[in-house]
Amino acid sequence: MTDVEDPLFVIRTFSRDTDARLAEAVLDANGIESIIIGDNAAGMLPYLNAMHPIRLAVKESDVEEAQRLLGAG
Fold first, then answer.
1. The model's pTM
2. Sequence spans of domains, the chain
3. What are residue 54's DSSP bridge partners?
4. Is the pLDDT confidence value at 43 over 90?
C-alpha cells in the first residue's frame, strides 16, 4: 500500500508490456519498488496500449534514482 507521505509518480510510459516489465525488473534489481499501470486485456488486445500507454510509477522519493537507472533525463 502506498504511503500518503510518499505518493506515486509515473516516470515512463510504454507501448509494449515487455518493455515495461524489463524496466520494472531493472528497478527491482536495484531495490526500487515500482508498479505497472495498464490494461490490454492480459495481452489479448495489445492495440489498447496505443490509446492508453502502459505506465511505470515509483514513489516520489525514488523518482530521481529510477530515472537515472533507466537512462531518463
1. 0.79
2. 8-70
3. 14
4. no
